C-alpha cells in the first residue's frame, strides 16, 4: 500500500489499524521555529473523539497524543514530527464473528481481495480511527496558519439543512451544540433527527460546509494541482465522503455565464463569490468555501445480509457503539484536512517567483 | 509552477500556452510493448477540437499530434513519450485590449498576482487548450486499458437533464449527436438550449457523467490516495469544474444506512451499487460512476465590467468564437482523465502483494 | 525539513532525535503476505548497536524495536508498518556545555543556521542514531528479497585494506570478527589499528564494500533514476560517507575501453564485470558491487577548538563513549540501504512491460 | 520507465532517443520573472555538442534548442518550459547490423531484457545524446543562480592528472583548451594522450572536478536528501560515470579525525575544508567541491566480440565517429547537473523556517 502520505512540502504520513497497538504519523516539512500549543492540539482531538455526546458512538478512547520528535522545548525544529496515539481500547474482544465475513458497504471485501489478508479487527486500516492522526497534524497546520480562519460546520443531516448563506452564520456558535451546526434552530432539528435515527438502529448521512477566510492571493499550482483539486482530493480521502463541490458547485452547472461571473471591485475583490475564492486553480483572496457529502455509516444496528469468505450469504447485526451520523465528529476532520492542504500550498507558494 | 504532472507511475507532464508555439507533454511510465493505434488517438483529439459543430467555438485548430519519442515501429518502448501539438492559430492578433485587463471569473488576475507576469494571449496557460495534451495521453491510457470501458456523456445542460439511470442508456449513441448525450430526446432539448443561449451571447453550465466498466477488484491506495479521491482530483483539475460526486454522491448524504448499503450477491457482486464501484477507496468490481459539474464559460458575448491593472473598472466584451457550453467538448476530456487515473492505479496495483 | 523519505514504492520515512523520546519510522509500500522473522530484524539491529565490542562506543542502548501496525498475525498486510525504538539512554545529562557550541566537522553549525533552532542533545537529528530505523526497514526489505544475497564488509581501515578481489573472500566469515572483515589476517591488523587509534583518543576512516548477488536482469529506471545512481544516493545519505564507486569505479577512469569492456558469454553473462552488474543504469544479472568511503568520526577525545554562538573560539574535548572507527557498525547500515533500494526497484520493475 | 525526472521543485523531465525525431524536456518549477539569456543557453549546448574539436566525435549536430512555452517576452512566467532539440542527424542509415546485436558494456542487452523491445538506432534512449536536454535546463538553472559560480574542469585523463589543489587553478582558462583543463601544461599532456588513444582506435576514461562557490549556508534536506547525496545521484546519472566523491572523498577514509576536522574561524568559515562545503548534509558556506569518475567510452574502433539475440558470439567493430574520451564534452554536463541540484535546493530552502 502506497498512498499513506499527503502533501508535497508539508507532508503527513500515517500508520495504524483500529485495534492495533497504536496509530500515529510523521509530519515531515513543518517549518522550524513554530511554538506549539499542545492544549489546542488535544482540543482538536477531543472534538473528534468518541463518547463526546449522546449522538455519537459511546466507545471510550482517550485519544491522547504523544510526540516523539521534531519538537524541542516546545518549538518545532524543522525535523520530522513523529507522534503516536496508543490504542487503549484494543481489548481482547472476540472478533471471530466477523473474521470471515464481509460487511456490506464496508471495505472488508475490497481489502481482502486486494491484499489477500486483512486485519479484520474493527475494520483495521479502513476504520475512521485513522483520522485521529490527521487531526493531530491538522492542528499543527492550523497553528502554522495563525492568520487564516478555517471553519467547518454541519450544514445538513438527511434532508434537514441550513437555509441561509454562510455569511449569515456565527461560526462561534458551531461548538455550542453537539451536532456542530452554527444555526441553533436547525441544530435542534438535526439533533432530534439523529436521535430518532439512532432509536431505529439506523444511520443517516449529511453534509459539512467549510469556509476558509484570509487566504492570501496566489495559492494553487496549476494545472493538475489546482488548489480546489487538492482540497477535493483531501476531502474525498475522508471515510464515507461521496462528493465535493466548491463555490457555486453543482448549482453552478445550472447557471448562465452572465449570472455566474464575479465582477470585480477596484481593489481586486469581487462583488459576488460564486468562484468560491479560487480562479484558475489559484486563490483570489476571497473566502474559499466548499461542501462535502457524507454517506450514512454502513454499520446499522439492524439485521443485514453479509457475505462470508465461503461465498455464503449470512445474517449479521451491528453492535451498539457506532455513530448514527458521522457528521458531527467529521467537522474537525474536514478542518484538519483543509489546514493540511492550505499549509502545504503556503509553503509551495514561497518559490513561485524569482528572488 | 509545480503541478503540471499527474500520476505516480503512469505520469503525464504537460506544457504550453494557448497562443505559444506549441503545447504538448511527456508520458513517463507507459509500459513497453503496447502497439499504438494512432488513428484512435487522433479521433479523441477530434472529439475535443474546436469547430466540430455549430454549438461549439468556431475557432479552427487542426490539433494534430506529433510524437517525438518513446515509440519505435509503432510500439511503445518503455521510454518517455514526448509529443507536441503545434499551435497553428497563434496569429499576430492584437491582444493589447486585454493585456492590462483582468476578465471576471477568469484566471487573469490570479496568475498575475501569483507570478508577477503572465502570457495574456488567449488565457495563456490557464486556457482549456492545455487539455488537448491530456486527451492525447488519455487516448494512450485507454489503449493500455483495452478491456476496460470508459464512457462519459453529457448528463445535463442548465436545468435539462437525463431522467433515467445510466443503466438504461445506450452509450453507443453518445457520439450520434453534437451535445454527446446518449438519450436522444434529451439531446435535442439540450442542443436547442445551447443554441438559445448562444443567441443571447451568453453561456451555460452542465454536468458530465462517466461510467467505467470492467474495472478489476483492487484498484486504489488507501488512505489518502483512495481511487475516488484521485478520480475526484483529476476531474477537479479540468477547467471550469466546480464539483465531483461518485456513487450516491450528494444524494447519499440524505439517505439512511439501511437504504444505502449495497447487499452482496454470492459472487461478491452487489445487488445495488450506491457505492459507485468503490469501497474503502478500493474498486470492488462493480461499475464505477461519477458526475462532474461544469460552470458556465466565463467569456460571454455581452458587455461586462472588468478590472485593469491600474485598478480601474473598464467595460469589455468577449469576441465571437467561444463555447456557449463547454460540456460537449469536455466529454472526451473527462474520459481521458479517467483513463489516466485508472491506468496509473492498474500499475500501482501490480506491487500490492508479495510474489 | 523535507527529505526524510527514501524510496518510490517501498518507502521508508524516519523520525527521531538522538536524545528524544524515541526514533522510528513508517514503511509504506511493503507488499502484503510477507511472513516476518522478527528475530532476524533484531539481529540486524544488534549488529549496529553500540557496546557490541571493545572497538565501538561503549554506550548502552538495547535498541529493541516495537511494531505498531501493518503486521497481523506475523504477516504484512500491505498497510503501513509503523515502528518505534524507544530511547532508553536519554538521561537527564547536562548538555549545557555544548548548547551554544558548534563542534568542528559536525552538523551543529549548519543545522542551527538552517533551522534557527536545534536539538543539541547528542547531535539531535544529525546523529547516526537515526540509522537504527534504516536497519529495521532494511531487515524487512531483506526478507522480501529472500533470493538475493547482500553482503557488505569492511574493506579498509585507514591504509590497511584487503588486497584480494571480493571473489576470493568467504562472506560467512564477516561476522566472525569485530571489525567485520572476512579476510582474517587483514581483520586482525584492522582491529589492532583501531585499538591504537582509540588509545590516542583519535578516530580513523575506512571503506565498506558491498556485493549483491542474484539480482535479476532489469532493475533500474533510466535516465535519472539509474540503479547505481539511487544506490549511490542511498549510501551517500549515511552519516560520514564521503564517496561512492561501483564496478571499476575511480580505477575505471584510468583504463582504456579495450581493457574495460565486459565481453559476453553466450548466456548473456559477461567474462569480466568491470560494469559492476549495471549497464546503462539497469542490472545485467552479474554481481553488483560498490565501495563506500567513510571519513573518520569527528568526535575525538582530544582537545579541539570549537566555535560558540557568540562568535568565540572555545576549547572543547569529546567525552569517552564515541566510536574510534565507524566502519564496523556501518556494515549493517550499508546492507540495509542496499536492501531498501533493491526492494524498491524490484517493485518498480513490475510495471515496465504491458501485460 | 519511470525515472526521467530530476528535482523536487525545480524539476526537469526529459524525453527522446538518439535517432528519433527530437529530444527535449519540460522544466516545471522554474520561478517566474527570470529574464533569460538565450545566447548563454546555446553557448552551453555548444560546449557539449559533437564536432567541436579534433578530440571529440566528428558527428555534426547543430543542437539548437527551441522553446515552446513558459517564456513570454524573454521572461519566465512560472509555467512549464517546454523545449525541443530536433535531431537533424537521423539519416536513413542502415542499422540492421546492430539490430540484433548487444554491444559489450553498452545498454543494449539490459534495455532489451527489461523492456522486451528497444530502439536500437544509435543507442536509443541510453545514448548520451539525452544529456543535451540536461544542458539546456542546467543553463537556465545557472541563470537563476546568478550569484553562485559553478566551475567544472577535466582533472584527469587516464593516469594524467592535475597535481595541484583546485585553489591554485584559474578557472577562466578551462575553456582555453579543448580538453577543458585549466592547468595548461597538464592540458597539453591530456590532449596528446587522447590523440594517441584515438589513433589506436581505443578510448580512455578520466575524471572531472567541480567547484561551486558562493553557496549560502543551509542548502540540503537531511536525512535522505542530503545535499551531497543528491549531487552524487545527479552525477551518477550521467552516462559512463562510475564514482563520486566530495570533499576529502576516498582519501578521507584513510585519515584520522584529528587531521580531518575543519576548525572554525570566528565568522563561521573553516580553516580547512575537507568537509567539501557540506556538513551533516547541509551546505556550510565554504566551497563545495567533488570529483566524478568516467569510464572509457565502450565503443572502440577495434574488433570486439558481441552477443546477438540468437545467443551467438559475433565479431563487430565500431564506426569512426565516437568520442575517444568523453570527459571534455562532459564538463558542461557536470556543471548542468550541479546547477539543477543547487537550484532545486535553493527553492527547497525557502520553506525551512516559519515566517
Automatic annotation (TrEMBL), chains A, B, C, D:
Keywords: Amino-acid biosynthesis, Aromatic amino acid biosynthesis, FAD, Flavoprotein, FMN, Lyase, NADP. Pathway: Metabolic intermediate biosynthesis; chorismate biosynthesis; chorismate from D-erythrose 4-phosphate and phosphoenolpyruvate: step 7/7. Signal peptide: none annotated. Its cofactor is FMNH2. The gene is aroC. It catalyses: 5-O-(1-carboxyvinyl)-3-phosphoshikimate = chorismate + phosphate. One of its GO terms (biological process) is chorismate biosynthetic process. NADP(+) binds at residues 48, 54. Reduced FMN (FMNH(2)). InterPro entries: Chorismate_synth, Chorismate_synth_AroC_sf, Chorismate_synthase_CS. Transmembrane segments: none annotated. FMN binds at residues 125-127, 239-240, 280, 295-299, 321. NCBIfam families: aroC, PRK05382.1. Homotetramer. Belongs to the chorismate synthase family. One of its GO terms (molecular function) is chorismate synthase activity. It comes from the Bacteria. This is Chorismate synthase. This reaction introduces a second double bond into the aromatic ring system. PROSITE patterns: CHORISMATE_SYNTHASE_1, CHORISMATE_SYNTHASE_2, CHORISMATE_SYNTHASE_3.
Amino acid at each position: 500500500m502506497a498512498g499513506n502520505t499527503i502533501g508535497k512540502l508539508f507532508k503527513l504520513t500515517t500508520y495504524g489499524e483500529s485495534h492495533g497497538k497504536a496509530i500515529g504519523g510523521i509530519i515531515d516539512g513543518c517549518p522550524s521555529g513554530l511554538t506549539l500549543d499542545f492544549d489546542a492540539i488535544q482540543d482538536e482531538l477531543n472534538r473528534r473523539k468518541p463518547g463526546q455526546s449522546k449522538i455519537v458512538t459511546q466507545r471510550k478512547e482517550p485519544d491522547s497524543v504523544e510526540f516523539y520528535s521534531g519538537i524541542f522545548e516546545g518549538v518545532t525544529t524543522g525535523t520530522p514530527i513523529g507522534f503516536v496515539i496508543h490504542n487503549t481500547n484494543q481489548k481482547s474482544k472476540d472478533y471471530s464473528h466477523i473474521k470471515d465475513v464481509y460487511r456490506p458497504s464496508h471495505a472488508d471485501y475490497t481489502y481482502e481481495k486486494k491484499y489477500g489478508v486483512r486485519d479484520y479487527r474493527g475494520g483495521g486500516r479502513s476504520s475512521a480511527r485513522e483520522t485521529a492522526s490527521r487531526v493531530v497534524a491538522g492542528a499543527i497546520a492550523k497553528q502554522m496558519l495563525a492568520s487564516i480562519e478555517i471553519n467547518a460546520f454541519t450544514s445538513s443531516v438527511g434532508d434537514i439543512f441550513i437555509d441561509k448563506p454562510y455569511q449569515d452564520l456565527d461560526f462561534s456558535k458551531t461548538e455550542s451544540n453537539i451536532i456542530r451546526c452554527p444555526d441553533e434552530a436547525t441544530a435542534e432539528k438535526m439533533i432530534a433527527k439523529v436521535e430518532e435515527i439512532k432509536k431505529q438502529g439506523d444511520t443517516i448521512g449529511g453534509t459539512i460546509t467549510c469556509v476558509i477566510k484570509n487566504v492570501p492571493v496566489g495559492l494553487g499550482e496549476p494545472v493538475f494541482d489546482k488548489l480546489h483539486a487538492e482540497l477535493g482530493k483531501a476531502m474525498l480521502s475522508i471515510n464515507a465522503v461521496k462528493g465535493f463541490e466548491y463555490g457555486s458547485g453543482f448549482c453552478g452547472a445550472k447557471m448562465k455565464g452572465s449570472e455566474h461571473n464575479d465582477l470585480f471591485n477596484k481593489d481586486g475583490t469581487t462583488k459576488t463569490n460564486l468562484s468560491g475564492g479560487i480562479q484558475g486553480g489559484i486563490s483570489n483572496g476571497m473566502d474559499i468555501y466548499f461542501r462535502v457529502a457524507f454517506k450514512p455509516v454502513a454499520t446499522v444496528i439492524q439485521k443485514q445480509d453479509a457475505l462470508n469468505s465461503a461465498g455464503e450469504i449470512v445474517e449479521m447485526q451491528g453492535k451498539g457503539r457506532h455513530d448514527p451520523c458521522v457528521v458531527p465528529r467529521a467537522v474537525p476532520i474536514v478542518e484538519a484536512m483543509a489546514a493540511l492542504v492550505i499549509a502545504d500550498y503556503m509553503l509551495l507558494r514561497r518559490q513561485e517567483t524569482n528572488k
